[in-house]
Specification:
Order of helices and strands: HHH
Structural class: mainly alpha
Subcellular location: Mitochondrion inner membrane
Oligomer: single chain
Transmembrane segments: 80-101
Helix content: 55-70%
Organism: Didymodactylos carnosus
Distance between the termini: 117 Å
InterPro entries: MCU_reg
Number of helices: 3
Membrane topology: Single-pass membrane protein
Radius of gyration: 35 Å
Length: 119
């Protein structure tokens, strides 16, 4: 017969057997549900952090809740120049693409421009 001391020694040498239990499907469903809920909560918290980062760019009016005047908004140097240096080349590039696309369509007789004057 095995004594209780021997059983305890065997179990203590194998700690993974101490807490072994059969897992039911309800436990698996509950743990999966808790993982999904935790994932959704983390996503919501991340969105809140993103909103906090965008806070300086959102307009809240001139006055604070206490009635104090807010500081001047941040100004970006050369804002118009930066805008124009991006906008003008890409508008030109878009017009070139459309021009050559219409020429190709006319060449393949898929689009033919008719200049009919009915006057």
């Amino acid at each position: 017969m095995i004594s209780t001391k021997n059983v305890c020694r065997k179990l203590s040498s194998q700690p993974h057997l101490l807490f072994y239990r059969k897992v039911s499907t309800a436990d698996v469903k509950a743990s999966a549900r808790s993982m999904v809920v935790r994932f959704i909560q983390n996503r919501r918290a991340q969105r809140r952090m993103d909103d906090i980062r965008l806070e300086p760019y959102m307009s809240k009016g001139v006055y604070t809740e206490s009635g104090a005047i807010r500081p001047m908004p941040k100004r970006y140097p050369f804002g118009i120049i930066k805008l124009l240096t991006i906008t003008i080349p890409f508008l030109y590039l878009g017009s070139l693409v459309s021009k050559y696309a219409t020429l190709g369509l006319e060449k393949m007789d898929l689009f033919v421009y008719n200049d009919d004057d009915d006057d």
